[in-house]
Amino acid sequence: MPRGQTNTATKSRGKSKTQSRSRANQSSSRSRATASRAASSSSRSKTATASRGRATGSASARRTSAGTGRARDAITLLTNDHKEMRRLLKELKAASGDSRRAKVLEQVQTALKTHTMIEEQIFYPAFRDAARKEEDRELFYEAHAEHDAADLILGEVSTAQDEQFSARAKVLMEIVEHHAKEEEEEMFPRARKLLDQEELRRLGGEMTEMKQNGSASTGAIAAVTSAVRRVVG
Questions:
Q1: Which of 99, 173, 179, 223 would be 146's cystine partner, CB 3.0–4.6 Å?
Q2: How many angstroms separate the CA atoms of 105 and 91, rounded?
Q3: CA distance linking residue 218 with residue 162, whole number of Å
Q4: Model pLDDT for residues 93-152, shown as the tens digit of each residue
């Protein structure tokens, strides 16, 4: 090949290689830019997700904290017990059939036994010790007497024949309703004046623990019910 043609071919190949490298560099630059944008987007996504997670966790913690605060207030805890008791006693009065009655009666016995236990072993003694007036002490003794009355009627409901069951369940419901209403309208408001919020939370915590682990005595209801069953039987 003549030398002129050789130089021309060489220059052509050089330009082609230079253009190829340029295109490769441009492609590499675009790839790095794309990777950079992807990394930036991923980072923002992770940051946003983490932020939402922290916000959700914080809200959950606030809800848990609020719920715990309510649960540890002694009066709120007892008032909630009253609501559950009213619901169960309505179900008991309306229950028909041996199986259904036995199931609801067992729930009522457990609820009453537990409620009586935490009141008589924790709340009532604290109220008695803080009492300043004779009326306060009267409320204390009346509450104990009403527990005894509920114990006796519960035993009668447990041994009632079919035709007597609804009537005795109604009497039990009325006794418990009277007791709960008297506590909510007289004893509890007075307790809020005699006991500060910190003490009520402490008492509530003790009652919650007692309800959960069942480590304390089962209270008067179980003993009276058992005694009535032995006499009737």
A1: 179
A2: 9
A3: 28
A4: 999 999 999 999 999 999 999 999 999 999 999 999 999 999 999 999 999 999 999 999
The per-residue pLDDT for range 55-80, each reduced to its tens digit, is 444 444 344 334 444 447 999 999 99
The alpha carbon of residue 194 and the mean position of all alpha carbons in its chain are separated, in whole angstroms, by 27
Confidence at residue 203, expressed as pLDDT on a 0 to 100 scale: 97
Collapsing DSSP to helix, strand or coil, 49 comes out as helix
Q: Is the pLDDT of residue 198 over 60?
A: yes
Q: What is the separation, in whole angstroms, between the first and last Cα of the chain? A: 129
> Which tens digit of pLDDT belongs to each residue from 28-51?
555 455 455 545 555 455 545 444
Assess contact for 230 and 158: CB atoms under 8 A: no
**Neighbouring C-beta atoms of residue 21, cutoff 10 Å:** 10
For residue 75, give Cα distances in angstroms to 150, 189, 190, 195, 230: 21, 9, 11, 11, 36
- Are 88 and 104 in contact by the 8 Å Cβ rule? The answer is yes
Alpha carbon 114 to chain centroid, angstroms: 17
3-state SS class at 1? coil
DSSP per residue, 131-189: --SHHHHHHHHHHHHHHHHHHHHHHHHHT--HHHHHHHHHHHHHHHHHHHHHIIIIIHH
* Of the candidates 124, 131, 122, 221, the residue with the CA atom closest to the CA atom of residue 176: 221
